[in-house]
Amino acid sequence: MEKELRVGMVGYAFMGAAHSQAWRTVNRVYDLPARARMSVICGRDESKVAEAATRLGWEAYTTDWRELITRDDVDVIDVCTPGDSHAEIAIAALEAGKHVLCEKPLANSVEEARAMVAAAVQAQTAGVRSMCGFNYRRVPAVALMRQLIESGRLGVVRHVRAAYLQDWIVDPQFPLVWRLQRDKAGSGALGDIGAHIIDLTQFVTGQQITGVSGLTETFVKERPLPSAAAGLAALADGSATGPVTVDDAALFLARLDGGAVGTYEATRFATGRKNAVRVEINGSLGSVAFDFERMNELEFYDASAPGTEQGFTRILVTESDHPYMSAWWPPGHIIGYEHTFTHEMRDFLDAVGSGADPTPSFVDALQVQLVMDAVTRSAEQGSAWTEVAPALAEVAA
Ligand SMILES: NC(=O)c1ccc[n+]([C@@H]2O[C@H](COP(=O)([O-])OP(=O)(O)OC[C@H]3O[C@@H](n4cnc5c(N)ncnc54)[C@H](O)[C@@H]3O)[C@@H](O)[C@H]2O)c1
After folding, report:
1. Residue 230 pLDDT more than 80?
2. Whole-model pTM over 0.85
3. Secondary structure element (H or E) that encloses residue 176, with its range
4. For the chain, what is the total number of helices (H) and then of strands (E)?
């Protein structure tokens, strides 16, 4: 019989809404060994979380995540809060015997990520599972990219070229939200969006980054405080500002353990680019190229085709035998951003429901954290070459 996994979700804003949409949908489109039940939503403001529970479709709400993790009617804790609370909530939840799905980046520091891995490894011995929410892995075109590389269609992978480009803080008057504060977010563009392209490229190539040379920049160093923090008088004369304590842009060169070399760029200052996750991989037998702003398409160049027929082919990744697509619409009827989360919940329920570990694991997410830490340290030392130790080796030690 199908198991029921009762979910308790912390946070009800951007990711809370995206995850709710996915929890609502996943069992209606996929046939899975476990069914998600949207049991309890958690937030600190009672009236807002009550409203969110009704709007997003949760049965109950609470204002205290500590109460949430001890409840008998919750099996899974879904962490959708900023990075400064991931470690505390996830570790406590795992210790309380709850499966955990935690948003990315796993933590705000390597130390926190290591503690989360230790808790996950311990919990795993009792069959308690954990996963980090790198949803871009679940874009069908990205999963197809991985299949093509894994099956050898690109030959030896030589170049990884990745960029994650946004522009929402170009205006210097944009307020000092939590994503611009190191104590809340850990880092800026690097952890917010760079984390995604680190995970995505390691996922599709099957190679891990072993060393980096990094460069970071903060273009706007002082910003208006958000209205709640500023007070009306200070806002009126424009005097209430605070320092931006994270990077606005992070760039790095990388070597990967299968011999590939890579370039990475993460910025929220790419004027005109809204959510451009761009990846191109070049191998000895072909290339693939992807841009999330055209997420249903994958460009594939097959160098083994006759010379007169070579050229990039635009694959519309909507056939029912493309990854994740069997549950959706007829070919050519495209899907969107929210489907990546439905696919994430699909993979989570499939693994947990069949007693297996979902991926990406907390160890995979620690690997991303180690790369980000190396980029930060490298940037602080004039872009000095900085090695990245493999996360798996740490766990095995
Ligand atoms: N996978 C993705 O594509 C993606 C996209 C955006 C954000 N994220 C990640 O998701 C996480 C949340 O980001 P967001 O954009 O949803 O942020 P947000 O600001 O929109 O929402 C954060 C939520 O957490 C709540 N919160 C904060 N501290 C809390 C605490 N101590 N206890 C209970 N609730 C608390 C806030 O009230 C709010 O509801 C971050 O880790 C972020 O990096 C991932």
Report:
1. no
2. yes
3. none
4. 14, 17
Q: How far is the C-alpha of 205 from the C-alpha of 200, rounded, in Å? A: 9
Q: How much distance in Å is there from the Cα of 15 to the middle of ligand 1?
A: 6
Tell whether ligand 1 has an atom less than 6 A from the beta carbon of residue 85: yes
The C-alpha atoms of residue 225 and residue 242 are separated, in whole angstroms, by: 6
| Res 266 pLDDT > 80 | yes
Pocket residue to mutate for ligand 1, from 20, 79, 81, most atoms within 8 A of Cβ: 81
* DSSP structure class, residue 200: H
Ligand 1 centroid to residue 6 C-alpha, Å: 21
Spatial separation of the C-alpha atoms in residues 157 and 109, rounded to whole Å: 30
- Ligand 1 atom closest to Cα of 192? 43
What residue type is assigned to position 68 of the chain? L
* Per-residue pLDDT tens digits for 74-97: 999 999 999 999 999 999 999 999
**Which letter, b or e, does each residue of 57-89 get, where b requires 16 or more Cβ atoms within 10 Å of its Cβ?**
ebebbbeebeebbebeebbbbbbbbbbbbbbbb
Residue 357, exposed/middle/buried by CB under 10 A (0-12, 13-18, 19+)?
Answer: middle
Q: Which tens digit of pLDDT belongs to each residue from 39-75?
A: 999 999 999 999 999 999 999 999 999 999 999 999 9
Beta bridge partners of 102: 79, 132
Q: Which two tokens stand for residue 229?
A: 């923090």
Residue 284: pLDDT band with limits 50, 70, 90 = very high
Interatomic CA distance for residues 145 and 286, integer angstroms: 12
Q: What 3-state DSSP class applies to 294?
A: helix
Going from the Cα of 338 to the center of ligand 1, the distance in angstroms, rounded, reads: 16
Going by CA atoms, what residue is nearest to atom 4 of ligand 1?
A: 15
Counting other chains too, the contacts that 15-18 makes at CB distance below 8 Å and 24 or more residues apart are 15/80, 15/103, 15/133, 16/41, 16/43, 16/52, 16/56, 16/80, 17/56, 18/337, 18/338, 18/341
The band of 396, judged by pLDDT with boundaries at 50, 70 and 90, is confident
10 within ligand 1 shell (Cβ under 6 A):
yes
